[in-house]
Amino acid sequence: MKTKSNISSEAEEQSDVSVLDVKMGHTLLRVLELFLLNTLLYVHAEVENPKPRLTVDTNIIHRKNNVTLTCSVEGSAVWKYDWFKRTSDSSEAQSIRNGVPENITHVSEEGLYHCRGRRGDPPFYTEYSNEVAIQKYVSNKASLTLQPNWPQIFRGETITLRCQIEGGGDTDWTYQWIPDRLNTPPTNSEYRISSATESDSGDYWCMGRRDSYSFTEWSDPITLTVSLNRPKAELSADDRDIPVGGSVTLTCSVKTSSSGWKYFWYRGEKTSEPLNTQDVLLSTGQISVSQEGVYWCRGGRGEPDYYTEYSDSISINKNVVNKAVVTLQPNWSEIFSGETITLRCEIKNGGDTEWEYEWITTSSEKPSNQNEVSIRSASVSHSGDYRCKGRKKNKQSTDWSDPIKLTVSDEKPKPVLTVSPLWLNAGDSVTLNCEVEHPSAGWRFYWYKAVPKLPNNFYSVELLPGSSNGTEQDSYIVDGQTGTAGYVCRAGRGDPVYYTQYSKPKLVWSGDSCFIRQSQSERTNQGSDTNQVVNQNEAQGEVYSNLLNGKQHEPEERRALFTVI
């Protein structure tokens, strides 16, 4: 059974629960009010404060051109636009246009640009747009040069690339390079390549920046080639022998596409000290030397010096006072194909010195290093100038001799025979003359009687008395000719004997005979030295046979034959 006290206690507990519920309800309502208020404020901010978007057709202004900026705000409302610019990241924004209806503007200056929209009165503003950086090419031109100007360098050399701004004045330029590895801060106007390698080969460009947003265009490229192999110097001499009282010129060169070489000269060993500069013409790579020895050279350039490989050596010899002379044995200025001749190198006042000999010639002949050059069965290819010199065992040598000219004719000479008189009385003497070009050139003369051979219409030749070894004189007298006769001659010289062709036959006839000249070309068959057979016209052969056999012709026939001569 509930007592009063129990009922009173339950009533108090119910009253406390009701108060707590009321308090909690009020708190919940306040929280909901705050949530709804924040939501409304957020939605209001989103709707009432849009953010424009700024776009650009290109970020770089080329020379006198401009770029177009577009400020876009979402929605269909009519907006006006404010435009702003900053000149650097740290500068304040400056208004450049306010409240214009166009959402497009054109600018020709570099800088940082942004925009905002506005509408209404009083104006309602959007947020500021994103910022766009506009860069500009300046009129100055970047120029890239090589110092020294060697487009081809070699591994280990040092070279500097220099970027110059034409008309740059006192502006503090910063520089940008391609390849990117050159853009190591601080970015300077020069890039120095020390101890170049093949990886340094390639194209290089540079540009100058006046500030963050204005710069030059890229320079024209320079192509740099780094060669792996060290070049080798080449040494040449205008002569290997120093003439008496004279000198020879040595020339050192480096065959590369790059220039700038200076030259260093050595005598004796490569490791010796270079010859002093009084002897050296550095600009032309030539040196005049009057001292015998072994010479070397090499090229060098740059700072510090980069050296080429040493050249091959050249031995320079000094000439002695003795003079070399070339002589011909026999001394014939013109010889004929098939003849034999000897060229001899003589050293004037050479004494008992053991000389070695050297020949040079413009002919196709390659003479041996002997004091005599024997040419057997000469040909036209042996024609030319011949010179020689002598060299001692210690390598000192004479000057080259004066040249001697040798001319070899391909045509065998043919003598011309004349007889006197053409008419004679029985028992008279006949004089024969045999004429050869250059009669003083060692010729001996051989004399023959022409003997007809019938019925084959040939004639043979028989040596006349006393001419088997030839005569020094070019004339021969036939004593006591008793009838008509034919004669032939030829010449010969040298050992073995070289013979000319036979002359054409000539006839001498007595007063009671007639004479006929052979007018037909003759075919010569090779025979012995004393016999030669020549084909004749049949009618002439018969007449000649009759003449040699003493047969007479009638006067009318004699006159007809005489007109043939």
Automatic annotation (TrEMBL):
Coiled coil: none
Database matches in InterPro entries: Ig-like_dom (IPR007110), Ig-like_dom_sf (IPR036179), Ig-like_fold (IPR013783), Ig_Fc_receptor (IPR050488), Ig_sub (IPR003599), Ig_sub2 (IPR003598)
Keyword annotations: Disulfide bond, Signal
Keyword Heme: no
GO molecular function, one term: transmembrane signaling receptor activity
Ig-like domain sequence ranges: 50-139, 142-216, 231-315, 324-407, 413-491
One GO-annotated biological process of the protein: immune response
One of the record's GO cellular component terms: external side of plasma membrane
The protein's name in its UniProt record: Ig-like domain-containing protein
